[in-house]
Amino acid sequence: MKKKIPTFKSDREAEAFVDTADLTEYDLSRAKPIRFEFERKAARVNMRMPEPLLNALKSRAKERGIPYQRFIREALEEAVTSDRK
Length: 85
Fold this sequence. Notes:
By secondary structure, the protein is an all-alpha fold. 45% of the residues lie in helices and 0% in strands. Helix 2 packs across helix 3.
């Protein structure tokens, strides 16, 4: 039986764990890929939308554990890049 990934109090603790642990010993079946945003956000967008749509966006973002504005950015990015793949 594989070990559970421990809970970390800081990024530093997590990095130290990854640097020293043999990850093949741990259950990574529930791991999910994440995306980091490094590009500077200089432009602003202001839009109106129906409140139920905004609430749905916030709910889906919460399920993913990310801020709703990041969720919207990811959805827009997917919309403009999906046909190019």
